[in-house]
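Lab manual, section 2.4: Encoding a predicted structure.

Procedure: take the sequence of the chain (244 residues), apply the prediction step described in section 2.3, and record the output as structure tokens. A sample record is shown.
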Amino acid sequence: MSRENAEDASSAARSGILKGVDATILIVEDDRSIREITKLGLQDAGFTVQTAADGDEALIRFRHDQPDLVVLDVMLPKRDGLEVCRAIRAESSVPVVMLTARSDAIDVVVGLESGADDYVTKPFEMPVLVARIRAALRRAQLLDPAETLTLGPLRIDVPGHRVTMNDEELGLTPTEFRLLLELARRPGQVFTREVLLDRVWGYSYLGDSRLVDVAIQRLRAKIGTHGSPELIETVRGVGYRAGR
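Recorded output:
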């Protein structure tokens, strides 16, 4: 196969995944009716769907089926969703969308810290969940496999999905990594919360900026423990920027 044909095939494969073709989704939900309705909805959207009813089964399915994305309920028997998410994140960067009946800021913080990429609040509309899934899959496909950046003492290894400072690796979640990458690609440029929602999460939250503020807070805390909180600056009334 020629290089051009290979690139065309790769592009077509990525396009197919974003449309749901050949993308496998693992739904982890203990409520049978929600699980089955969600499965049917995602199958109608073109996804291949596997299901699990508790935390232990979720990890067995995840390791066996190797899905492209996990839809994970927070409240689960045996192991809760946060514990499952941490276990998944310890061995994979596959996107995780959490399902939660609560939308308080603390739940957003805990979910992000556990390694989730996004969350959807119950009850949810199926088009909303499908849109969030496609956005998460799109983000996973857009990382440049040859890109390496520096920001102050930080070295951002895109293909390795690693950030190091003074040769010490920082334990960033996938969301924190993408947020830092977006800021570091354009140091000095101010990003509004709405722009960051679109570029990092892939959609608008219609004015709800909690995900951006929480992710910035967590990212600063991890960088700040190394003495460099000024790497991410707040522009009052506007948004955030990476320091030059």
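Check your result against the sample. The chain has two domains: 3-141, 148-242.
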